[in-house]
Amino acid sequence: MAYERKEISIENIRAQEAICARIREMLTARVGQPLAMVDTYGCQQNEADSEKLRGYLAEMGCGFTQDEFSADIIVVNTCAVREHAEMRVLGNVGQLNHSKKAKPGQIIAVCGCMVQQEHMAEKIKNSYPVVDLVFGPHDLWHFPELLLRVMTGKKRVFATERCDGYITEGMPLKRDGKVKAWLSVMYGCNNFCTYCIVPYVRGRERSRRPEDIVAEARQLVAEGYKDITLLGQNVNSYGKDLDCNVDFADLIAMINEIPGEFLIRFMTSHPKDATEKLFKTMATCEKCAHQLHLPVQAGNDRVLEAMNRRYTAEKYLRQVELARSYMPDLVLTTDIIVGFPGETDEEFEDTVKLCEKVRYDAMFTFIYSKRVGTPAAKMPDAATREQKQVRFDKLLETANRISAEKHAEYIGKTMRVLVDGVTGKTEYNLSSRTNGGRLVHLKGDEALIGKFIDVKITSGNTWALYGEIGE
Ligand code: SAH
Ligand code: SF4
Ligand code: F3S
Questions:
Q1: Residue 68 near residue 108, CB atoms below 8 Å
Q2: What would the 3-class secondary structure string for 147-171 be?
Q3: Which ligand sits nearest to residue 113's alpha carbon?
Q4: Which atom of ligand 2 is the closest one to the Cα of 335?
Q5: Mean of the pLDDT values across residues 60-73?
Q6: Does the N-terminal or the C-terminal CB of the chain have fewer CB atoms within 10 Å?
Q7: pLDDT per residue over 34-43, tens digit each?
Q8: Around Cβ 451, how many Cβ atoms within 10 Å?
Q9: Does residue 234 have its Cβ closer than 6 Å to ligand 2?
């Protein structure tokens, strides 16, 4: 890969933090205690990016709100993966007219994957005058400088540099919870699945150095985090761009060595290069959850090839078998696209058959959405929306039935769970996760949040399990 690794130096980040201090003075003089709202769409990578935005905003002196009418600064962090995600963003950005009218001087920024696409940045420029600032994922590291330009100039600011992406270390971070944390291990994607926009908006694959990741994990454990999810579009490519001979399995083993009681999870794994070494490492590292998200996308070989997934259904099934041979209790989940251009009813049936064979604990199913600039967008697509909906409904029914059956197998068992938050309901007020990541609702004291406890599973449905805390 002719990709040149580009790092944003720590001095550059410090300069951004100095700008934060300047903005803090300006904001305090203007409004007293400033409030910011960060609205996040899309995947965990975007959640992780929003934690960086909040890190900068906190250094600007901002408190946080969910109410757009009280916010002085609104940042909408967008997703481009499907049309539905974009429509939701545009609808909500349009609504911000009202808050801005009610609160003159409110600054509205739209960032993330959606606006990294030229046509979308143009659309915001032309049709959403309420937006003051637009920046893509590659420009996040200098958000303070961009914001300052908005605050001191009279013009709207657009920063969507076309590039392969950077590695940045040392950005301030404000994490959402106290129990679960996201930890990005790599950025970007080189796979160019033919339907997918991610490689175009997130740039080339680039791995953080293992020592930086381990140091961050160590810090998280010291701060009391109990559940660390390593993030990358395809973690199995981790390290390929580094010169230090550490692959993803090695990285898990290194994090596993950190003393303390915590769980290591990760996503996402591309089936084309999940290795036996990875499964073995997952099985032998006692802190690594036996949970694997292994998106299959389709169960038919012609469709898989047209998607440029680079594996066959048979190879995929062999991998599942191999993973389960190391971890009989493995919780396996997947993503599936229904109605890829040219998919026939018969080809779709192969997907259903594969799911019946694998019996996933949970499936995330999507109807194909055409993305501007991707190869699949130019493929003939004869099936109607109605036909695709029929397929989708059938797959969802299969998925829900299997999940419910799998959950029923837990009833009567005692499981170790991590209590991770409140549900807001009185009957089952706590939520928790099994080692494999299944959701268990419980009734108990909120002081249990952040603790590993044993619970007896009493019932379950498609979406969740319910349990009782032992004496
Ligand atoms: N890097 C991850 C996926 C990121 S996108 C991986 O390779 O597994 C999350 C999911 O969105 C994908 O797995 C796919 O199922 C779905 N998806 C991506 N592009 C899509 C599109 N154009 N239409 C419908 N679903 C899509
Ligand atoms: Fe998209 Fe494929 Fe990359 Fe996943 S691996 S982000 S589906 S191109
Ligand atoms: Fe969406 Fe960007 Fe994630 S397109 S799914 S937010 S990488």
A1: no
A2: HHHHHHCCCCEEECCCCCCCEECCC
A3: 3
A4: 7
A5: 98
A6: C
A7: 999 999 999 9
A8: 16
A9: yes
